[in-house]
Amino acid sequence: MAESARRGRTRGGGGAARRAERTAVSFETARYIERNIPNFEVLNDEALEIIERNAETVLEEIGVNFPDNPEALQKWRDAGADVQGERVHIPRGLARKLCATAPSTFTQHARNSARNVEVGGRNLVLAPVYGPPFVRDTAGGRRYATMADFNKFVKLAYMSKWLHHSGGTVCEPTDIPVNKRHLDMLHAHMTLSDKPFMGSVTEPSRARDSVEMCGLLFGEDFVQQNTVMTSLININSPMTFDDVMMGALKVYAENNQACIISPFIVGGAMAPTTVAGTLTQVLAETLAGVAYSQLCRAGAPIVMGAFVTSIDMNSGAPTFGTPEAAHITYGAGQLARRLNLPYRSAGSFCGSKLPDAQAAYETANSLNMGLLSGVNFMLHACGWLEGGLVSSFEKFVMDADQLGVLHHFAQGVHMDENGQAMDAIREVGPGGHYLGCAHTQANFKSAFWKSDLLDYKPFETWEDEGARDTTQLASLRVEKMLADYQQPPMDEAIRESLDAFVARKKAESPDSFM
Fold first, then answer.
1. Where are the stretches annotated Disordered (predicted)?
2. Interstrand relation of 117-120 and 33-34 (parallel, antiparallel or unpaired)
C-alpha cells in the first residue's frame, strides 16, 4: 500500500555516498485508498427513485439557467432541449442519456508515474484544502495568503504520507495579480511536487494556459490522450451555470481533462432545508452539468460532486459535521453510483476559527462520512478552517496525519490465517499475555495505526517536554517538514520551458487585481 521515495543525490562514491544515503530525507507516500469495506447507504430504492423522478421534473418543468452563454444554449438546442431565453428545459431522460458517455473511472497521471491516481470505483483519492483567501499559523495568526504561503502548502502536501494529490488553489496568493496568479500556482505544483494537481477555472483563458503548461510538462500528445489535471467546476446553486465556469469546463472537456461538477449547497439558503429536497436539486444540477460536459466532448472524464453544508438559522453561518450534511452526502453517493459516475464530496470541514476541539469534532465527522459514503475524490481533505475562509498550517498537518485512519479503516478486517491468529491464541492459552508471543513479534510493526503527531507519552514525560498541546506539536511538525523538504528532480529543459512560458504570459498583459 505504500512506496518509499528517497530524495537527494551526491557526487562521488564509497563512504561519502553511503553516508549521504543514510542521511538523505526519506518519506513514504501512500497509494490511493482502495476500499475493502461496504458503503453506508441511507436511502432505500423507493426513496432513490422518488428523488430521481423529481430531479427529472425539475430539469423538464423548471429548467436550469445558462446565462451569457449563447454557445451553450445552441448546444442544448441541438441536443433536443427546449431553450427559452437563457433557461434550458431538458426533456425527461435526455440528461441521463448524455451522462452515459462519461467514464465510470479514469486515471489522473502525475509527472512521477508512481503517484498516478485512479478516480472512481472503490477508490478514494485525498487532496488538500482549496480556495481560502486567508492563512493562519501560530506565528503570524490570521492574515491574507501570499505566494510564499502557497509554496509552503505545496511542499507540505508533497511530503504528507497520506495525501495522494497536490490539489489546486491551496490558498489564494493575494500578493500576485489576479490575472497572473494561476501561472505561479501551476508552476509551483509542477516543480515543487510530483503528485497530481488541479488546473485553473477562474477564466477560460486560464484553463487554456493550464492545458498549455501541461503540454510542456507531459508532452502535448500525452495530454490529449491522457488525463493529467482535475479541476473544480462549481454550479452557482440554485440551478445556474455561469459562463466563466462553463467556459473553463468546455476547455478541459475538449482537451480530455477531468472536471468535478459540483453544486455549492448551503441548505436553507441555496437549497431546501430538507434532505430529500436538497438531494433532488443536487441531482438535477449535476445531471445538467455532466450532460453539458458530454455535449462539449463525449467521453470527457467527469466527477459528480456535492459540496454540502447546513446553515445556522440564527447567524446565517454555514455549519459542518452535522447529521443533515451526512444524510445528504450518503444519499448523493448512492445517486452517483446509480449513474455510474465517480463521486466527490466531504473533507476536513469545520466552522471553527482555530484548530481546536470544535474543529476536531466537526472534521472527524466530515472525514468519516466521506469514507463511508463512497467518495472517490475528496477535496479539502486537510487544512480547512473557518468555513473555508482559512488554510491553516497546523490544521493541515493535523488533518493529514488523521487521514491515515481512513487508509487503515478502509482495509477492512483481514480473515486470512494471520488475521485469525489461532496460533497466537493456542500459544498463549488461558491466563497468559500476548506481548511476547510469536504472532505479536511478527505483527507488532504493522498491527496498529500510529499517529506521527499525537502525544501518547506518560504525563510526567509530557510535562517535562513542555506540556505541549496538539497545535504546538503541529507547529513544530510544520517547521520540521519544511526544513526537511527537498525538491523532486525535474528535467532542466522542461523547467526552463515552464519558466519561459510563465514569464512570457505575465509580460503579455498588465497586472490586474480585479
1. 1-21
2. unpaired
Residue with cell 437563457: 86
- Map out the domains of the chain as residue ranges: 1-29
CA separation for the pair 116, 90 (Å, rounded): 37
Q: Is 243 helix (H, G, I), strand (E, B) or coil?
A: helix
Neighbours of 313 (CB within 10 A): 11
- Nearest of 283, 351, 346 to residue 316 by alpha carbon: 351
pTM value? 0.93
> What is the C-alpha separation between 149 and 468, in angstroms, rounded?
25
- Give SS3 for 145: coil
Measured between alpha carbons, how far is residue 374 from residues 41, 97, 178, 265, 327 in Å? 9, 23, 36, 19, 13
Exposure of 88 in the CB half-sphere (CA atoms within 13 A)? 32
Number of Cβ within a 10 Å radius of residue 104? 14
pLDDT at 488 over 70: yes
Q: What is the largest CA-CA distance in the chain?
A: 80
d(Cα 437, Cα 430) in Å, to the nearest integer? 13
Q: Which residues contact 6 (CB under 8 A, 6 or more apart)?
A: 21, 24, 25, 26
Supply the mean pLDDT for the chain.
93
Do 389 and 144 form a contact (C-beta atoms < 8 A)? no
Residues belonging to the chain: 514
